[in-house]
Amino acid sequence: MSAAELLCNLAGINPANLTREENFIIEAELFTRLLEKLKDYYKKEFGNYLRIVKSDKDIEVAMFESNFISCIIKDILSTEEYTLSGIAYYTDTPEEIVYDIAIGNNISPSANLLRKIIELHRSVRSDLYRSIIEKIISEYTSNSTL
Fold first, then answer.
1. Among 113, 33, 128, 26, which residue's Cα sits nearest to residue 75?
2. Cβ contacts of residue 140 below 8 Å, gap of 6+?
3. What is the pLDDT of residues 126-141, one digit of tens each?
4. Are residues 113 and 93 in contact, defined by beta-carbon separation less than 8 angstroms?
5. Whole-prediction pTM value?
6. Roughly what angle, to the nearest 10 degrees, separates helices 57-78 and 20-52?
7. What's the chain's average pLDDT?
């Protein structure tokens, strides 16, 4: 079951009753919320480093934004379930590009590559994503936004 289907089911919505465009909007909203929550999660780790070097807030935000996907790749590697070449194979991307993203030389991967890397990260860190999805659902149900 996809995360969007899970969100719909928990909100009491049958995704089969939605149009293709409505399902796409739900997926896009969920992806956006998911990225926000992942950024919050990694800001805690990355923020400790930035506080040590005592950067100003604008530089801190710019550095984090440009290194976010690098954090995701490094987290995948830290699980030891995938190597750099494994990530490249899974995402159907040359290893050199994945490497450049991991070391921060490429800070603007395509949306498709970002999505594939997030999917892979979700598979190796399912507990983290489950926790994030639960927070998102809780926010939606407490705000009655859906």
1. 128
2. 7, 11, 146
3. 888 888 888 887 877 7
4. yes
5. 0.72
6. 110
7. 80
Measured over all CA atoms, what is the biggest interatomic distance in the chain, rounded to whole angstroms? 52
Residue type, 138: S
Give the least confident one: 51-55, 75-79, 119-123.
Answer: 51-55
Q: Which residues contact 102 (CB under 8 A, 6 or more apart)?
A: 70, 73, 74, 77, 84
Q: What is the Cα–Cα distance from 93 to 90, expressed in whole angstroms?
A: 8
Residue 46 near residue 64, CB atoms below 8 Å? yes
Which token pair is 1? 């079951």
Q: Report the 10 Å Cβ neighbour count for 36.
A: 12
Mean pLDDT of 79-107: 95
> For residue 26, how many other CB atoms are within 10 A of its CB?
20
CB atoms within 10 A of CB 8: 22
The rounded distance, in Å, linking the Cα atoms of 35 and 84 is 22
Structure tokens at 4: 């969007």
| C-alpha–C-alpha distance, residues 105 and 10, integer Å | 40
